[in-house]
Each structure stands twice: as structure tokens, then as C-alpha cells.
Design brief:
The structure holds two protein chains of two kinds. By secondary structure, chain A is an all-alpha fold. Chain A has helices at residues 8-40, 47-54, 56-88, 95-103, 110-121, 126-134, 147-171, 175-183, 188-216, 220-225, 233-244, 247-271, 274-279. In chain A, α3 (56-88) crosses α7 and α8 (175-183) runs antiparallel to α9 (188-216). By secondary structure, chain B is α/β, with parallel strands linked by helices. Chain B has helices spanning 7-28, 37-46, 68-86, 99-108, 120-129, 178-182, 201-207, 215-218, 222-235, 245-253, 264-273, 303-313, 316-326, 335-338, 351-355, 362-381; strands spanning 60-64, 89-93, 115-118, 155-167, 191-194, 239-242, 259-263, 279-294, 329-330, 358-359. The two termini of chain B are 34 Å apart. The chains are: A mainly alpha, B alpha/beta. Chains A and B meet through α3 and α11 of A and β6 and α16 of B.
Chain lengths: 282, 382
Amino acid sequence: MAVRALTDRSRYWLLILPALAAMLIFYIWPLVQIFAISFTEPTTGFGNYVDLVSSRPIRTSFVITFRIAAITTIGCLVLGYIVAYTIYNTSVRFVGLMMALVLLPFWLSVLVRSFAWIVLLGRRGVVNDALMSIGLIDQPLPLMHNEFGVLVAMIHVMLPFAVLPIMANMKGIDPSYVAAARGLGASEFTAFRQVYFPQTMPGVFSATLLVFVLSLGFYITPALLGGGRVLMISEYITYQIQEFLKWGLGTALSVALLVATAAVILAAARFVNLRKTLLERG
Amino acid sequence: MTKIMDSSQIEDQEFHTDLCEIAVEKFRAGKISRRNMLQLLGALGIVPLLHDKAFADTKEIVLVNWGGKAAEIIQEVLGDTYTAETGIKVVVDGSGPSAGKIRAMVESGAVVWDVCDSGPGSAIIMGEQGVAQPIDYSIVDKSKVIDGFTWEYGVANYMYSYTLCCNTAMLEAAPETWADVWNVKDFPGKRTFRKSVRGMLETAAMALGHAPQDVYEFLGDEAGIKAAIQKFRDLREHIIVWPSGSMSQQLFLQKEVSIGCIWSTRAHLLKDEMPAGTFTTSFNGGVLSPGAWVVPKNNPAGPDAAMKFLAHSQKPELQVEWLKQIGCGPSNPAAAALVPADLKPWNPTSPENRATQTVYNDDWYAKNQISAEELYVDALIN
């Protein structure tokens, strides 16, 4: 019986193999099949992609999707930065509690949280009822079934994803830099703007990327709160596959979404060293 | 890859699964007392109660529908009564008799279903493909089915409609026609229409002034379809779509909409759930849609036994019971007279209601649905 000395390299590959196999079988292979469907149904060729570009509702849907993802990202960044800054620059006693509160939404499913917004924002929902009983308005405000409702709910759902990377970044920032800046005569705002803020950029950047990419493909919240008029691509894909049975077009749309997302990430990679940003702390 | 099914099948399927959801809601509300918890779990489609006997057994009929509480109700209303009369056991299987499944069964030679709750579009297709049996009209009585709802390979079992419903508490006057629904000034508030174009373009055509009977003629050419779509584009700011039966019900319950085009079965539930006197349903300009019994070729119990069961399901009293429990309209014209007075306005197939409705045209949908769907989505989001 020959004894083979296992080199470090082959040991490394053997450890990775099960995960890689699972990934290939359950993720890559079905993805390849989806690619294949987009090229073969209903007829072989690029027909579906031509339809995709020439169809007006699809283009509108892409525009809506990117617009909502962009606004959600900006909203999450602003709010998320404030939350993260507060957590790391207030009393040490509360840090644990505040972090737990940030993570609390993850205990609930997204579906439940979206339905909660329906209860809050409906015509006879909590917000409208409160405003009407105070007397501020006499007709209920249209807070739901439009872009406003979708944005509010999406910012709420995506916020933890924005807070966490920024928090991780801030954790690694040495407070002595700001102290040094103050010591050299800078005002609080100048110290923040020129010393602290640039150091948080990697965290902000990861948060932007994470929230944007997630929002692009998000389905449940816009589907529930959009009223059928805020049609994001993910919902459009579902429509094509389940209702119209146009699997060719549906898969082509999925591929298009995948390519768009990859394009966003690649564009980001040109400006920032992604490996350094996402894998290193601060 | 799985075969692409035709669009009319999807119509039947979505409505049928909606029936299951209604039934589950009723059970949870304690309105129906149910016997077998295991059967409920099985009938919800997770584990089909499939028989694995592939040979003829005249002591048993396997009836297949779309599961859920609708399965339990059909067991009680049709199955148990048939067993009481003839001694032949009726087993209800809720695994959803799509045309694809029936075809697979017949072509593989292992048919285990006797009677299937399908739809006319599927019945026609299955007949053409040779997987369904022609209905034996010497046993099944044609006169017991409303005119026009018998086909070579299927016979109507129940009917439902797309109706004009409104919350009168939110309006000063109730809209009476679809043209009123498009009149946002006099009838304010949001409207709800189906997310899919099925059953919806007809309402736009009627709002343009066409009589229910002329609707499909008007929609027969591209100009007609475009005009109807333009109507939706005009109204789009006021529309909230319902993606499912339960959402259509919820939109009314939450007072999000004041007017809507929804299924009669959901309207049937809303009449009890909305505050008294605030909810009305009008079949004026409604779109009537039938389900159909289909008997697969080489069914285990044999054609005779299946046809006798179909004849049994035509009994007017049973259909009235069915209407009471789940809101499905009877297909037997004699049943309308037996419907209790308070339920009469809610019966899609009562003579008064039938006179003002048009019938869902499967041929038109087979030809135009896909292109119409895309135009409809475009109208809503642009």
C-alpha cells in the first residue's frame, strides 16, 4: 500500500471540497440551467434578450428598481451612519444593549415586518388614524401602495445591513486620532470631517454596496407595499414565470439582473480595493 | 424541463387554489367543524392522498380537486351523499388535477383518478390530446346544466364570477355599471383590479359602453384591446391590484379600496365579514366563469360509474348546499329556485344575474392572453 504524503495544498483542497461540491451542485448547476432556458425557450437564440431590451414595461421596471435601490441606499446610509456613530461614541455601558437592538429585527421574518408596515401605513392604519384624530388632516394620506410606502419599508428592512458594516469599521478606529486633532486646535466638526469621517469610508462603502445589491433583488417588501404600480424587476420575473409562463423571458430577466448586479460590484471594485475594504477592519 | 402549460389551465388552477384558501379561513374562523386533522394536512396539498391502485374498482370513486377545505366540503356535500345512496365509496383527493398531470397519468397507463375538477379550456385540450373521455350524456343530463356549459369532454360543475363590489360606507352612491367605476369624481376612492388581465379587460370594454354580450367581439381586434388598455392607463393612479383572492378580500376589509372587481367567492365571504349593510356585490356586467368535470381515459372505476357520479352531482339540492358553504354558483338551472332568498343575490347563476353577465371566453384568452398581459402591466406601471 503506497503512502502518499498529503501536501498542505491538497489538504486545503480536500477541506474545501464538500462545500465546493454543494455549491456546484445546488447553486452553480441550476444557475447554468437557468441560463440555458433563457437561450432555448420558446425558440433557441437571443430572442428573449431582444424582447427584454425592446419592451417598455421591462425598461420602466429596471428604472424603478434602480431608483428605489438608490434611494433606499442613501436613506440607509444616512440613518445607519448616525446609529453606528451613536453606538460607538456614547457610554460604554449601553453598547451591548444598542447592538442587540440593532440585531433584533433579524429575529423576525421580513414578511412579518412588511405586513407590520401595512398595518401602520394603510388608509385606516395607525399613522393615518392618529393624524386624523389629532386633527392634522381630514382625509387619510396615501402612505402605502406607492413608492413612498415601498421606500419607508425598504429602508426599515435594510437598515441593519447598513449599520453593521459601518459599526464594524468604527470599532477599529483609534479614538486618539480625533483627540490629537482636537489637541492641535481643530473644532469638533473639523476633527470629525477631516479625521474621523475619512477613516469610516471603507465601512460606508461596504454598507453602500451591501444595501444596494440587496435592494436590487428584493421581492417581498415592494410586492406587498407597491400596489402593483411599483413593479421591481424581481416581481416582474415572478410574474413572467408564474403567471405568463414565459420562462424564457423570466430567466433572461434573472440573468440581466445578475449581470447588472455584477456590473455594479465591478464598477465599485475599480474605485476601491474590494479585498481590502471588505475583508479588513478599519 | 417541465412542459409549458396553457394559459387557461392557470386560470382554473389559481381559482381552485383560492378556494382552498377560503376553506382554510373558514375553518380557522370556526365556521366549519372538521373531522379529520390528518386529512386536513394531507388535503392542503403537502401530501396527496393518492391511491396506488391502478386497476378498476367499482366499489370506489376517486374525485380529485384542488385540496384544502374545498376538498372536505365536496366530500361532505357530494361524496357522502353519494355513498349514502348507492353504497359506493367516494374518496376525495386534493392533489390538483392539472391537465399536465392527467395527461401524464393516461399516457403512462396508470390512471388512478375518476372524476377531476378541471376547467373548460383544459377539457377541450385534453379531449384533443385524447386523454379525456367524452361525457356520456345519456347518463349525465344535459338539461340539468345551464345552456352552453356542456362540452364534449367536460360538463360544468359550478360557476363563479368576476363581480363589481363596493364598500357603500365609503361612497355616497353605489356604482351600478363599470362606467361608474371609471368615474372618479362621483365615486371617489381607490379601486382594486386583478394583477393579471384575466377577467379585467372585459370591464374596461363595458366601461367604454359595450354590452356584456359584445365584449369579446370588441376585444377581438387589436384596436379594441388597445382601447381597453388605455382605459386602465387612465385609471391607473387610482388602482391597487390584488395578486391573490385573499388580498382582494383584505383590501376591502382594511378599507383601502371602495370599489373593486373581485371573485364572487371572495365577495361571498366579505358579505359576512364587512360591517352590516356596507358591502354590495353587483353581477351587472360580471364575467361568469365555469369549472368543469373531466373524466380521464381508462379511469379505474370505469366510465359508467364516473358518469353516474356526475349525474349525482347535478342534483340541485346538493349544489345549493355547495353555494351555501363556499359560494360556488350551481350549474343546474333548477337550483336557482331552491336557493334561500337571502342568498339569491349572491348566486352567480341565478337567472337575474346571468342576464347581466358575459361568459369568460377561453378561446379569446388562448389567443390573446399573453400579449394582453404585457400591455396590462405596461398600462399599470407607466
